[in-house]
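re: ur question from earlier - yeah i can do the single chain one, its not a big deal. heres the input i used so u can compare w yours
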Amino acid sequence: MRIMWPNDVGIKAMEVYFPAQCVRQEELERHDGVTAGKYTVGLGQAKMGFCSDREDVNSLCLTVVHRLLDGYGINPKDIGRLEVGTETLLDKSKSVKSVLMQLFEPSGNTDVEGVDSTNACYGGTAALFNAISWVESSAWDGRLAIVVAADNAVYSKGNARPTGGAGAIAMLIGPNAPLVFDRGLRASCMRHAYDFYKPDLRSEYPVVDGKLSIRCYLSALDDCYQKYCEKVKRNEDKTVSLDTFDAVLFHSPYCKLVQKSFARLAFIDFLNEPNERLFEKFPGLEKFHGEKLEKTYFDRDIEKAFMASSNAKFLQKTQPSLFIANQVGNMYTPSVYSGLVSLLIKKSLNELAGSKVGIFSYGSGLASSMYSLTITKDVSNNSDLAKLVSHLSYVESQLDARECVSPADYTKCLELREQNCHVIPYEPCSSIANMFPGTYYLVRVDEMYRRTYERVLLSK
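and the output i got, formated as tokens:
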């Protein structure tokens, strides 16, 4: 029997949320007493968003999903699946998805599949794959799915603290989408590693092995890219290289690692190139052709050489996707999807039309995947793509509207969160005065750990 797939399954709408306060990385350098440029140039970061004690993963998700429903006029009854990806756990049993059902119960819709997916920064991608699979399965009932990725990324004092961030992404998934997932073109790498993990449930801070984390990230990237290339070759008899993609997005722990990762893919393309074409395509790099991938993770000569040779392509294909990451930091599960939002708002509709977008998602521990999507060619004024991009026009103005606090106040905020992590009963003390309209905030945690939220007025 012939399988009748829904047409063009993918992302129909997107919403992004980040807290209304941030800290400048340049000021953080001076506060921490490190060399000027260590965070801004070395990490490639300008600002870092963070949550006060008024926000948690529940409030982040409530805010972004409510925004999605209101912003696109979505009837809650039209949602049949709701998936959440997060590593910011508040409860070892109750899912964040169950908290979000407060937005659906008033409409009478409790028939909503899906729960939470957790594995470091990969949970949002796992949730997305689940939603796509549901729409393409025999279980699909014709309704749409929502995928939410949200986290508050904080670190203890030290080298990792400047790589924090916070935010949430919500995506509407269904057929006839302007951002279409390429069916059957997905490659994953899953391994056991202690590169980053959160074993202490009394703390928001992770345990991080920085050097191992970079090695794991690059190793997973190597594996996923090569397997993706193999699958395309097998299924479509086509050779894949960076030239295949109009844009390449990466999970962004910090922006400089993304640039190095792009160069890594250029290095793999170089190793795959026949010898007779090396002089033509990679002048001056021939001496690196005999290198083994697994021995080059920290080879500075190769890194610098391929960052330089691939820089023009990086600026064209990847740099536009780092806009939010540079301004907010590592949002964890939403990170790579904030890259997709950035791409949509930084490229013109004509540049986006028909684009092939490669995406690499990574979560420590480790789980990773590479896949691709194709953007519709329809860029007419009333097209779904034009509406999606137009809807995201608020992003830049809201980034600019954030309150930039001093590093000292940022540090005090983290200390306050640290002191009151899992303390009950608890009433937050931070102000809600500067929160964006429509933001959910924590009112109290009672003696039974039950959390109550309210919402900032839209007319604020």
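The chain is about 35% helix and 20% strand. not sure if urs matches, ping me
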